[in-house]
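Long-time lurker, first post.

We've been arguing in lab meeting about whether zinc ion would sit comfortably in this protein at all. Half the group thinks yes, half thinks no, and nobody has a model to point at. So I'm putting the question to the forum: if I give you the sequence and the SMILES, can you give me back a predicted structure of the complex? Inputs are below. Any interpretation is welcome too.
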Amino acid sequence: MNEGNGRDDFSRSTVESIAKRSGYICAYPSCKRMTVSGSNDRDSGLTMTGVAAHITAASEKGPRYDHNMSPKERASEINGIWTCQIHGKFIDDNPSRCSVEELRRWKSQHEKWVFDRVESGLELFSRGVCRLSFSKVYPFVGEFNIPVGRNNVLVGDIELGITFCQILSALSGGENWKKIKYLFDSSTRLGCFPYIELSHQSDNGTTRVKISRQNMATGRRKADNARQRVHVEVNGCPSPDWPRSLFRVLYFGNQLYRTHYTELKDTFIKALRYLANVLGTDEDLIWDSLREELFASSMFGNQFRRTGHRTVDIRVPGRDFFLPHKSLSFTEQQFAFLDIALKLVSCISRKEHWIYIFDTVFFERLDQSNKLSIFKKLTAYESGNVQTLFCLNSKVDADMLTNILTEKWVNAEQFEGLTLHSFL
Ligand SMILES: [Zn+2]
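Top reply:
Settle the argument with this. Predicted structure of the protein with zinc ion, as tokens:
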């Protein structure tokens, strides 16, 4: 509230609560535009493209000003409606078409829509990873408890986003845990006691897994190695075993990039090696599986014909001849890799639960239509055993994906420069 200039503006916390009640989604009828996305340049890591519009104006000359309201009422959450910038302007400029009654009706309809999504989401989404909590895992400083949906879109600071993806992956154990172990060590050096905890639902009920630092009596430097041990708890009881069977992670990141000169030059081979590792199988078996029969129907329409030890000819959709994998463009290789990965996961392990994580690097060199195709196909999964997490740092990408999923939206959670939108 700013009484000095005769305006009853919303305070920062009121703006935030108007935004949250609206799920950071424009409340103008049928708009449903997401109004939060990542920013590389802002300290918050976020770009807010929504506005808290006044239902009755903040000052006497504004639209729909109500003399009978007290300054406190005028600056309260009840007097605000969350919209995108276009509709915020539209509402301000067209008070005759957007009356107080209309705005109140839009607000309450929209908030009911949001509430219903959250409520039904919690009931309907009953399989897989449903919640992730973590505390003081470097570089995060706070404590978070975040619901996870079937499809999830993470926007905001890209470094933190990738760390969040790694924290989620870590609970699947093995290599994925090794990737974040150093974050635990960094946190500990800073005098914090980090933990990560995850809830997973299956036919057998909810399993909670918590990974924390093992409490060691000794504090001597030489005992550092011993002190790096972790403590695993399953449903509140200490467990000697890492619960690998809960879910598995397929991480689509930089497999197809040449990141270092000493690495394998043929990044397609590198990507399939990664896949063999994730599936816990032999690299040769992955190559041997590249047969026409198996890929007669693949998600993106690629066909494969094995030609040698580490060579395969690929027919990309829309082309009527096969080409060696090395001759394909980067984009074509990305799609071929996606087809192989998704097909093999579906063949090998129908009963296991999977999370497909796409970090922003995967999309770096793809054009908009290719991204759209991936977003559409990957989120159309009706099978109960796959969840997706897209970590995106471009506003255009985030808008494109959230627009596809708008009707399935259930929740938005903000934490330290990141926003996680979850969807059914
Ligand atoms: Zn709008």
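For your lab meeting: Residues 144 and 193 are 14 Å apart (CA to CA). The first strand starts at residue 36 and ends at 38. Whichever side wins, do check it experimentally.
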